[in-house]
Protein backbone atom coordinates (compact mmCIF):
# COMPACT_ATOMS: atom_id res chain seq x y z
CA UNK A 1 0.00 0.00 0.00
CA UNK A 2 1.10 3.59 -0.62
CA UNK A 3 1.71 5.99 2.26
CA UNK A 4 2.48 9.70 2.07
CA UNK A 5 5.92 10.95 3.11
CA UNK A 6 6.41 14.37 4.73
CA UNK A 7 9.35 16.48 5.88
CA UNK A 8 9.89 17.91 9.37
CA UNK A 9 8.47 21.18 8.01
CA UNK A 10 5.22 19.33 7.14
CA UNK A 11 5.83 19.51 3.39
CA UNK A 12 4.97 16.59 1.06
CA UNK A 13 7.96 14.51 -0.01
CA UNK A 14 6.45 11.80 -2.21
CA UNK A 15 5.23 8.44 -1.01
CA UNK A 16 6.55 5.07 0.11
CA UNK A 17 5.33 1.51 -0.43
CA UNK A 18 4.34 -0.26 2.81
CA UNK A 19 4.44 -4.05 2.65
CA UNK A 20 1.12 -5.67 3.56
CA UNK A 21 3.03 -8.61 5.06
CA UNK A 22 4.36 -6.23 7.73
CA UNK A 23 1.93 -3.31 8.03
CA UNK A 24 -1.23 -5.13 6.96
CA UNK A 25 -1.39 -7.99 9.47
CA UNK A 26 -4.42 -8.53 11.70
CA UNK A 27 -4.25 -6.49 14.91
CA UNK A 28 -4.22 -9.04 17.74
CA UNK A 29 -4.32 -7.58 21.23
CA UNK A 30 -3.48 -10.97 22.77
CA UNK A 31 -0.13 -11.01 20.96
CA UNK A 32 0.61 -7.42 21.98
CA UNK A 33 -0.21 -8.32 25.58
CA UNK A 34 2.12 -11.33 25.56
CA UNK A 35 5.03 -9.38 24.10
CA UNK A 36 4.65 -6.41 26.47
CA UNK A 37 4.47 -8.78 29.47
CA UNK A 38 7.64 -10.51 28.22
CA UNK A 39 9.42 -7.16 27.90
CA UNK A 40 8.30 -5.94 31.33
CA UNK A 41 9.32 -9.23 32.97
CA UNK A 42 12.83 -8.86 31.54
CA UNK A 43 13.03 -5.32 32.97
CA UNK A 44 11.88 -6.33 36.46
CA UNK A 45 14.82 -6.26 38.87
CA UNK A 46 13.83 -9.21 41.05
CA UNK A 47 16.03 -7.96 43.92
CA UNK A 48 13.31 -8.36 46.58
CA UNK A 49 14.50 -10.50 49.50
CA UNK A 50 13.49 -11.51 53.03
CA UNK A 51 15.65 -13.31 55.57
CA UNK A 52 15.38 -17.01 56.24
CA UNK A 53 16.12 -18.59 59.62
CA UNK A 54 19.79 -19.18 58.78
CA UNK A 55 20.33 -15.49 57.94
CA UNK A 56 18.91 -13.96 61.13
CA UNK A 57 21.37 -13.07 63.88
CA UNK A 58 20.41 -14.50 67.26
CA UNK A 59 20.95 -17.37 69.62
CA UNK A 60 20.96 -20.95 68.41
CA UNK A 61 20.04 -22.24 71.84
CA UNK A 62 16.70 -23.96 72.49
CA UNK A 63 14.42 -21.41 74.27
CA UNK A 64 13.42 -23.85 77.01
CA UNK A 65 13.42 -27.57 77.60
CA UNK A 66 11.22 -29.83 75.50
CA UNK A 67 9.05 -31.32 78.26
CA UNK A 68 7.59 -30.42 81.58
CA UNK A 69 6.81 -26.74 81.11
CA UNK A 70 3.24 -27.10 79.89
CA UNK A 71 4.05 -24.94 76.87
CA UNK A 72 4.27 -25.81 73.20
CA UNK A 73 7.70 -27.16 72.25
CA UNK A 74 10.02 -24.64 70.59
CA UNK A 75 13.30 -25.17 68.79
CA UNK A 76 14.52 -21.65 67.99
CA UNK A 77 13.95 -18.03 68.95
CA UNK A 78 14.50 -17.20 65.27
CA UNK A 79 11.40 -19.14 64.17
CA UNK A 80 8.63 -17.35 62.32
CA UNK A 81 6.21 -17.21 65.26
CA UNK A 82 8.57 -15.05 67.33
CA UNK A 83 9.11 -11.30 66.97
CA UNK A 84 12.08 -10.67 64.66
CA UNK A 85 11.94 -14.23 63.37
CA UNK A 86 12.22 -15.57 59.84
CA UNK A 87 9.74 -15.02 56.99
CA UNK A 88 8.20 -18.23 55.68
CA UNK A 89 8.09 -18.57 51.88
CA UNK A 90 9.22 -14.97 51.46
CA UNK A 91 10.54 -13.55 48.17
CA UNK A 92 14.10 -14.37 47.11
CA UNK A 93 16.41 -12.77 44.55
CA UNK A 94 15.48 -14.17 41.15
CA UNK A 95 14.97 -13.30 37.52
CA UNK A 96 11.39 -12.74 36.38
CA UNK A 97 12.33 -13.23 32.70
CA UNK A 98 10.56 -15.97 30.78
CA UNK A 99 10.88 -17.37 27.29
CA UNK A 100 8.83 -16.18 24.34
CA UNK A 101 9.18 -17.75 20.87
CA UNK A 102 10.91 -15.62 18.23
CA UNK A 103 7.92 -15.98 15.91
CA UNK A 104 5.63 -14.47 18.55
CA UNK A 105 8.05 -11.57 19.17
CA UNK A 106 8.26 -10.92 15.43
CA UNK A 107 4.47 -11.05 15.05
CA UNK A 108 4.13 -8.70 18.02
CA UNK A 109 6.27 -6.05 16.34
CA UNK A 110 4.33 -6.42 13.07
CA UNK A 111 1.06 -6.12 14.98
CA UNK A 112 2.19 -2.96 16.77
CA UNK A 113 3.14 -1.34 13.44
CA UNK A 114 -0.15 -2.43 11.86
CA UNK A 115 -2.12 -1.10 14.85
CA UNK A 116 -0.59 2.37 14.47
CA UNK A 117 -1.33 2.36 10.75
CA UNK A 118 -4.94 1.26 11.35
CA UNK A 119 -5.39 4.12 13.84
CA UNK A 120 -3.93 6.67 11.37
CA UNK A 121 -1.15 7.38 13.85
CA UNK A 122 1.71 6.30 11.61
CA UNK A 123 3.79 9.06 10.00
CA UNK A 124 6.58 8.50 7.48
CA UNK A 125 9.34 11.13 7.43
CA UNK A 126 11.75 11.81 4.62
CA UNK A 127 14.65 12.17 7.09
CA UNK A 128 14.97 12.87 10.81
CA UNK A 129 17.86 15.31 10.96
CA UNK A 130 18.63 18.59 12.71
CA UNK A 131 21.51 20.75 11.53
CA UNK A 132 21.40 23.13 14.49
CA UNK A 133 20.99 20.36 17.13
CA UNK A 134 19.03 22.92 19.18
CA UNK A 135 16.16 21.66 21.32
CA UNK A 136 14.26 24.94 20.93
CA UNK A 137 14.31 24.74 17.11
CA UNK A 138 13.23 21.08 17.00
CA UNK A 139 10.53 21.60 19.65
CA UNK A 140 8.99 24.36 17.53
CA UNK A 141 8.92 22.13 14.43
CA UNK A 142 7.40 19.19 16.32
CA UNK A 143 4.82 21.47 17.92
CA UNK A 144 3.80 22.71 14.47
CA UNK A 145 3.29 19.07 13.46
CA UNK A 146 1.17 18.48 16.58
CA UNK A 147 3.45 15.78 18.01
CA UNK A 148 3.28 15.85 21.80
CA UNK A 149 3.77 12.10 22.34
CA UNK A 150 5.78 10.44 19.58
CA UNK A 151 8.35 7.73 18.99
CA UNK A 152 10.73 8.49 16.13
CA UNK A 153 12.44 5.44 14.60
CA UNK A 154 15.33 6.08 12.23
CA UNK A 155 17.59 3.76 10.23
CA UNK A 156 20.55 1.83 11.68
CA UNK A 157 22.20 5.11 12.70
CA UNK A 158 20.28 7.95 14.39
CA UNK A 159 21.23 11.47 13.35
CA UNK A 160 23.31 12.78 16.24
CA UNK A 161 22.01 16.35 15.99
CA UNK A 162 18.38 15.19 15.95
CA UNK A 163 18.89 12.82 18.88
CA UNK A 164 20.65 15.53 20.91
CA UNK A 165 17.93 18.09 20.17
CA UNK A 166 15.13 15.65 21.04
CA UNK A 167 16.74 14.45 24.25
CA UNK A 168 15.15 17.12 26.45
CA UNK A 169 11.72 17.22 24.80
CA UNK A 170 9.17 15.55 27.05
CA UNK A 171 7.11 12.88 25.27
CA UNK A 172 9.52 12.44 22.34
CA UNK A 173 11.66 9.28 22.06
CA UNK A 174 14.22 8.49 19.35
CA UNK A 175 15.42 4.97 18.50
CA UNK A 176 17.42 3.28 15.74
CA UNK A 177 15.48 0.64 13.77
CA UNK A 178 17.16 -2.25 15.58
CA UNK A 179 15.79 -0.85 18.86
CA UNK A 180 12.17 -0.84 17.66
CA UNK A 181 10.01 -2.69 20.19
CA UNK A 182 6.34 -3.19 20.99
CA UNK A 183 6.28 -1.47 24.39
CA UNK A 184 7.85 1.78 23.19
CA UNK A 185 5.62 1.87 20.10
CA UNK A 186 2.44 1.46 22.17
CA UNK A 187 3.38 3.90 24.95
CA UNK A 188 3.57 6.86 22.55
CA UNK A 189 0.58 8.24 20.68
CA UNK A 190 2.27 8.79 17.29
CA UNK A 191 4.73 6.47 15.56
CA UNK A 192 7.14 8.27 13.22
CA UNK A 193 9.25 6.19 10.82
CA UNK A 194 11.85 7.53 8.43
CA UNK A 195 12.00 6.09 4.92
CA UNK A 196 15.23 4.37 5.95
CA UNK A 197 13.47 2.82 8.97
CA UNK A 198 10.60 1.54 6.80
CA UNK A 199 13.03 -0.16 4.42
CA UNK A 200 15.02 -1.83 7.21
CA UNK A 201 11.97 -2.91 9.23
CA UNK A 202 10.33 -4.47 6.19
CA UNK A 203 13.54 -6.33 5.36
CA UNK A 204 13.84 -7.49 8.97
CA UNK A 205 10.22 -8.60 9.47
CA UNK A 206 9.29 -10.10 6.09
From TrEMBL:
<keyword id="KW-0694">RNA-binding</keyword>
<comment type="similarity">
    <text>Belongs to the universal ribosomal protein uL4 family.</text>
</comment>
<dbReference type="InterPro" id="IPR013005">
    <property type="entry name" value="Ribosomal_uL4-like"/>
</dbReference>
<keyword id="KW-0699">rRNA-binding</keyword>
<keyword id="KW-0687">Ribonucleoprotein</keyword>
<dbReference type="GO" id="GO:0006412">
    <property type="term" value="P:translation"/>
</dbReference>
<comment type="function">
    <text>One of the primary rRNA binding proteins, this protein initially binds near the 5'-end of the 23S rRNA. It is important during the early stages of 50S assembly. It makes multiple contacts with different domains of the 23S rRNA in the assembled 50S subunit and ribosome.</text>
</comment>
<dbReference type="InterPro" id="IPR023574">
    <property type="entry name" value="Ribosomal_uL4_dom_sf"/>
</dbReference>
<keyword id="KW-0689">Ribosomal protein</keyword>
<dbReference type="GO" id="GO:0005840">
    <property type="term" value="C:ribosome"/>
</dbReference>
<dbReference type="Pfam" id="PF00573">
    <property type="entry name" value="Ribosomal_L4"/>
</dbReference>
<comment type="subunit">
    <text>Part of the 50S ribosomal subunit.</text>
</comment>
<dbReference type="InterPro" id="IPR002136">
    <property type="entry name" value="Ribosomal_uL4"/>
</dbReference>
<dbReference type="GO" id="GO:0003735">
    <property type="term" value="F:structural constituent of ribosome"/>
</dbReference>
<comment type="function">
    <text>Forms part of the polypeptide exit tunnel.</text>
</comment>
<dbReference type="GO" id="GO:1990904">
    <property type="term" value="C:ribonucleoprotein complex"/>
</dbReference>
<feature type="compositionally biased region" description="Basic residues">
    <location>
        <begin position="64"/>
        <end position="76"/>
    </location>
</feature>
<feature type="region of interest" description="Disordered">
    <location>
        <begin position="58"/>
        <end position="79"/>
    </location>
</feature>
<protein>
    <recommendedName>
        <fullName>Large ribosomal subunit protein uL4</fullName>
    </recommendedName>
</protein>
<dbReference type="GO" id="GO:0019843">
    <property type="term" value="F:rRNA binding"/>
</dbReference>
Amino acid sequence: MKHDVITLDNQPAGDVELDDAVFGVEVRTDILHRVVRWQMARLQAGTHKTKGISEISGTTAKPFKQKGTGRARQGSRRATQFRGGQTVFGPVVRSHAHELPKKVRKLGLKTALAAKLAENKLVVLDTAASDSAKTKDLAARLSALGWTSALVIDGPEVNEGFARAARNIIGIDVLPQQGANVRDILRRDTLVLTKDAVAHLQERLK
